[in-house]
Write a structure and sequence with these properties.
single chain, 126 residues, mainly alpha
Length: 126
């Protein structure tokens, strides 16, 4: 059933559903615009016999190649972004908070503080 849904989504992305098809199904007029899908949306479906380290490596390489190609097309250096640099800077502040033996005083946003606290709790249990 799961594979049938995967293949069906690929077909839906490729061919969609026209207004005429939706109307022929007897869909109420007010719902018709929500059932029309233009299709012609490129997608990739990859099947592998098994998920092995080699297969996973190939999938990651394919993804990286795709990101690089899109970046070249859009004139963006996909692997040298300012957000990555900001993350590296912030990480230097967080590392001591993760490694500290004593409970650190956290001054991040509530989400980051919660992640740090949760990590420290899990680390204590291990």
């Amino acid at each position: 059933m799961l594979l049938a849904n995967v293949f069906a989504q690929t077909e839906a992305l490729a061919f969609g559903k026209t207004l005429e098809q939706v109307q022929a199904e007897g869909t109420p007029d007010w719902l018709t615009p929500h059932h029309v899908f233009e299709g012609n949306r490129p997608s990739n479906t990859i099947l592998a016999e098994r998920l092995t380290p080699e297969t996973l490596g190939k999938l990651i390489a394919l993804y990286e190649h795709s990101v690089f190609t899109q970046g070249v097309i859009w004139n963006i250096n996909s692997f040298d972004q300012w957000g990555v640099e900001l993350g590296k800077t912030l990480a230097q502040q967080i590392i001591p908070e993760l490694e500290s033996k004593e409970e650190p005083h956290l001054e991040h946003d509530s989400s980051t503080n919660a992640l740090i606290r949760r990590y420290r709790q899990l680390k204590e249990k291990a």
